[in-house]
Amino acid sequence: MHSAFVLMNAELGKENQIVNEIKKIPNVKEVYPVYGVYDVLMVLESDSMELLRETITSKIRKLDGIKSTLTMIIVKD
Fold it and tell me: Which domain holds residue 8?
């Protein structure tokens, strides 16, 4: 299983809309609006690294209101 944390910056006022859209995406395990440098935090899991990448680039980053993302792949022993 491959997992990642994805931190997102959103356009002002679009945070809740983005959270609601992300909840509909398969492989998303958790998503939260947060305060601080980033606006949204998501935990993503997938059976393959390719599917993880595809979800981030084709589904998450293309959502209306996303300004930028920071992805951290989780290393498991």
Answer: 2-68
